[in-house]
Amino acid sequence: MDSAAIFKLTCEIVGGLGLFLLGMKNMSDGMQAVAGSSLRRMISMATNNRILATIVGVVVTCVVQSSSITTVMVVGFVNSGLMQLTQAVGVIMGANIGTTITGWILVLKIGKYGLPILGAAAFVNLFAKSDRWRYWAMALMGVGMVFFGLELMKDACSIIKEMPDFKDWFLQFQADSYVGVLQCALVGCVLTTLVQSSSATLAITVSLATQGVISYETAAALVLGENIGTTITAILASLGATTNARRSAYFHVIFNLAGVFWITLIFQWYIGLVQSIVHVDVNAMVLKEGIGETFPNRTAAIAATHSIFNIANTLMFLPIAPLLVKFHPPS
């Protein structure tokens, strides 16, 4: 195997992932600095009405672009007594829906604008006299980093196609059986736990699928596992916290575990339903100069897979959430 190609692949993936994660942090920090008090007030005002609390979770997570930040804030509020467990459950379910917006951002195919957005925002950040403008620029810089990082990772995944050993390794994970689906979900869970960002692993998954390194079915199974991996942040935040704060973190785990369990049981039917809803051929191929074969329709299908899973899971849990809260383990 060509060592120069491996070096290039490693640099582009690590560099792209690093830029993506830094961009997510800048975007989140900037938005929290500008509107953080309002977002925290919105979360703390979430009522015992599960539907309204879920809507609050969706809105806040769409703004901060991270379900982990929303759930950590929720755990903190429960720990300090500002929020009841019943309120927290609704916000957490909404956060799972809100985080799926990342996939739809990828559908827009605006990665090529990442570098100019980053550059323009950097100038504003450097020369603006108002703190508010600087924070807005920081958030916009984060957007540019996210898009540019995605482009780097996408280019890196196109290199993998030219490396038989790497491609053969990825082909070991095929969601063509129940065991295969579980294996792929486990890989997605482990990767997200390590990276600490389901949005980052989703971006990598989309890049691999659109470049044809993995199939849409495999990508869909990876996405299911990524939903479980993202719960580790709330668990870590709840360590040493009050019983109810730990319970809110445990609910996040149970919510995603149960959802992945029942979706994997009907996985083949589910991915067929997703494709019929978005009306795309996931195997439609486009030849791009310098890249080769690509499968652009898979981005929308993967985004829909993520969104429909979380929406369906929330609808299933909404009626039984009070029972889960009531009979939750005490520690």
Structural notes for this entry:
With 331 residues, the chain is mostly helical. It has one domain. It has 16 helices and two strands. The chain has helices at 3-44, 50-64, 67-80, 85-98, 101-107, 114-127, 131-160, 164-170, 178-195, 198-210, 216-229, 232-238, 243-265, 267-278, 297-317, 321-326, and strands at 286-288, 292-294. The protein has a two-stranded antiparallel sheet with strand order 1-2. The termini are far apart.
Tell me the span between the first and last alpha carbons. Answer: 51 Å
Low-pLDDT parts are none
Average pLDDT, to the nearest integer?
81
Cα Rg? 20 Å
Q: Could you give the order of strands across the largest sheet?
A: 1-2
